Predict the structure.
Amino acid sequence: MSFLQISEKAGIARVALSRGKVNAVNETVVDELAECFRKLEEDRNIRAVILTGTGKFFTFGFDIPEFLGYAKNDFIRYLTKFTDFYTYLFTYPKPVIAALNGHTIAGGCMMAIACDYRIMVPGKAKISLNEIEFGSSLFAGSVELMKLWLGQRNAEAAMLGGTMFSVEEAHRLGLIDRIVPPEELEGEAEKTAARFAEKDAAAFRSIKKLLRKPLADDMKKRERDSILEFVDIWYSEATWRRLQEKVIHG
């Protein structure tokens, strides 16, 4: 795995994004995540998974400079992989704890809200689906996940406003489950994963499926159309200009 750091301790797997300063997500990262989680699903010794990042970022989202070089069909292929992965994560048969070590933005937020429990560090770190700020849309699945955790009204305000939530704001709204200092993040994630892992595995898998499969099925039905609309907007003249400016000015 080029961009993942994987370890295991007492039946808890730790998967850490490790790609440059901001852990930007590209097609290789998604391929590696999907492969890694499939293997962990099949490993009977693994009872829960922690998903985190290295450095001061969980992930700042998509690698925009790289995707500016993608043709439309290539970008559709990537987006299909990405949305398939967060839907898979949402219905993952084992507990998944998101240990958010820093900024959790756009695509990073989408992965985080697909997990079962989110722990985040305080300070300057933000969590957001802020795509509208650079003229981009969202995906059907990501919208449904935000509505699930925030409710319709708060989700609309967050996504239409492109709100960059502080950790405290996100916790108050229910987007984050727990706030811990950076030095306690790994330990708290391990404790939380262990508590989930104590549950009967078959019962956990069954109940999670009952809770989430209906929503996941609805997400899948609408995802393709949302991807195509996302791509149309992404490649529009106005959004393309904003994306290029974002790359130039950061």
The first strand starts at residue 4 and ends at 9. The chain has a mean pLDDT of 96. The chain has one domain: 4-197.
